[in-house]
Amino acid sequence: MSSTHPAAPPASSAGRGPGFVERAGASVTRRVSVIFYALGFFIEILRETVASFARRKVGSRVLAMQILFTGVEALAVTAVIAVGLGAVIIVQGTSLLPQFGQIQLLYVILITVITRELGPILTAVIVASRSGTAITTELGNMVINHEVEAYIASGINPIAYLVVPRFLGVIISMVVLNLYFNIFGLLGSWMVTQLIAPVEFVQYFQGLFGALSVVDVLSSLVKSVVFGAIVSTVATFHGFRVERSSTEVPQMAIKSVGQGFILLMFANAVITLVYYL
Amino acid sequence: MKFRIRFVNQVVGVFLIVALGFLFAILISIGSNQRWFARNYRYYSVFSSAAGVSVGLPITFRGFQVGRVTAVRLTEDNEVHVDFFIQDTFADRVWEHSLIQLVSNPLGIGGGLVFHQGMFPSDPIPEGSLIPTITSPQGRELVRSNLVRLPDQDDTINQLIDQVGPIMRNVEEITEILTVVLADIAATMQGTGEGPIQDMVNQTNRLLREAETVMVNAATISDNVAAITEEFRDPTGIVPRLLDPSGSIATFLDDDDALFLQIEAILEGMNRSINEVADFAAFVNAQSPELLFMLEEGREALSVGQDVLEGLRNNPLLRGGIPERREQPSTTRSFRDDSF
Fold this sequence. Notes:
The structure holds two protein chains of two kinds. Chain A is mostly helical. Chain A has one domain (59-276). Chain A has helices spanning 20-55, 60-72, 75-96, 105-144, 147-153, 158-193, 201-211, 214-240, 248-276. In chain A, helix 1 (20-55) crosses helix 6, helix 4 packs across helix 7 and helix 4 (105-144) packs parallel to helix 8 (214-240). Chain B has a domain at 35-151. Chain B starts with a helix and ends in a 26-residue tail after the last helix. Classes of the chains: A mainly alpha, B alpha+beta. The interface between A and B is medium-sized, with 27 and 24 residues.
């Protein structure tokens, strides 16, 4: 895959090195080329994903393993964060909001924070940190070991065989983890707060489901799908950007996490804006 | 091989199925809680402004949510048309003469539409009817006619506002008291007031008058001192004459110690007399034990004599008794023995 990278601009014909303007222009051109290349990579992933469903030949074993590593194994840390976050919101809400006579806003705050905003983004951060780096490292090592070239030589499309299962696996895991985050954040936090500020079970869930709307659930699910696509695409893209040296693998893993976080925040802002439009 | 890897499909299957189960349960709970399949009775109301009114605004009745605003639009007549629904479980409470009131919270949070029931039970008004607002002419007329049940406002903000009245009354009372105090102070300053401050002022005036008298006396004394000082300054005055070496005092003191010697002789005589008295007192002190012994002896002799006399008087053998004693006149005679 490294052969498809945009070529570096030619060196200046003059005896001296390139000037500042020339270097800046070259940098911008290179970055724009990378962005277009990444967009093309993402479109190729989508095309191969649809084609895989049409062919009914998704690497099911790879997909299951990806969901296991990305979803099941991240469940514990996700649950702990969700329970802690929900408990903090309930404790703070039950102590502050009654002072304004607005305790019913507790449920709106819970839904807004856990379901609509922090649930998807925290889940995405967890997945990007754990699985994004793992995917980048795994694919980078496969490139170094010429396994990708072997797939191509064998007539196997590496995107269809290596990327699509990971793409689907991360998206599915992200959606499911986000669901679990909501469950633990809303249900588990109620259990925790029984030790601190007891709230009636029926009262709590009546208020919660009264404040929760389908739009909130759909918004959360849409965010999960988009975040899963971003994390998996960025991770596989940087994994394939490794060219020949094993020292490139950690560099690409770091870039994968950094760029993944930036894109996640950007996408979160865009989706939230669309929600309120 | 690890359990998870060996049974990866089962683990992932359970992971997904449980999540899907929760998702369906959440959706069903939302649906049942938000009455997706229940019937709503739609009404409308007309407001003069859409401020504070928005789609989704809850409608409450005695603190319970009974409906929700579904649409807000501005009509051709510049009136704000608000569509809302009342839940089927509360639709039978929408009696004739019911009202809608927009309640806003001064803090900017909360608030909403409050449903006020008509005073007298009736069949529910038809769906799609107008329920007037409490600020509309129709609503004011219903309130004036006492055809609407208006509950007491009992939210926190209103309680605070209710407490403002008593506080203002207290402030008014304090202001009145301050006014009286200031009037008293003004009267006292003018000398027409009564009370302890006026008494203090009067006493101060008396003291000042007495001080004035004292000052007059002091002035007199000062004048005298000034006169004496003037006398000192005058070389022909009485003081220089008295103090002069040829003056009276000098002459009186310059007598070759005759006066001094005379006084000294008098003092020495007095000293001798005092010493003699002291010697006599010491002699008497030295004789005191002997005098005491003699007195004691005499007392015992008198006691014995008394017993003898008592025995003689009681003795029946002595018939003749004691002969009468004849007084022997003294050989010496003093002027005190003479009778005048």
